[in-house]
Amino acid sequence: MHDRVIGPFFFTEKTVSSVVSLDIMENFVFPQLEELQSHVFLQQHGAPPHWGTIVCSSLNDHFTGRWIGRGGLIPWPPRSPDIMPLAFCLWGFVKDTVYRRRVSNFYDLKVRITTAIASVDADMLAVIALIEEKLPVIERLHHGETIKKAEKHLTQWANCSIDGEKKESAYTSVVSSVI
């Protein structure tokens, strides 16, 4: 199930409204998720354009009971960015990759984001799934400390060369940090 990342999607409008957000979902997100729909939970953050009435209504139609976010049946946990695997693993990796060097312009930023997302492979997503599975235990036992270690190791692992030995070693570090 955790075998791909869909996106990225870039808003080209200067102001992102609920109408623009809904347009992106209907034209890009929903069609790509159609085949996976019964197995997918969609996660939205709390930006106002993402929880406007028209957006929530459309999400309820397409992902009834299977979307996480403000205005939905499953609320986004308040003040919880570091307990959401997408926030601390995937976006941490993308941010580290994109800002490794100074970004020169908007086009450069978009290219780097697209390249970073494209480099996320099934192995990395499997590690994120493992972390997600172990998260309740991690939080209870370590009060978040292990999450910070796992994020560091995941970023190191994802940035390793394709050399299997190096990647396997970092993968083991992530797994041992999580378990």
UniProtKB/TrEMBL annotation:
InterPro entries registered for this protein in UniProt: RNaseH_sf
Molecular function as annotated in GO: nucleic acid binding
Domain of life: Eukaryota
PANTHER family named in the record: HTH PSQ-TYPE DOMAIN-CONTAINING PROTEIN, TRANSPOSABLE ELEMENT TC3 TRANSPOSASE-LIKE PROTEIN
Protein name from the UniProt record: Uncharacterized protein
Source species: Stegodyphus mimosarum (African social velvet spider)
High-level lineage: Eukaryota, Metazoa, Ecdysozoa, Arthropoda, Chelicerata
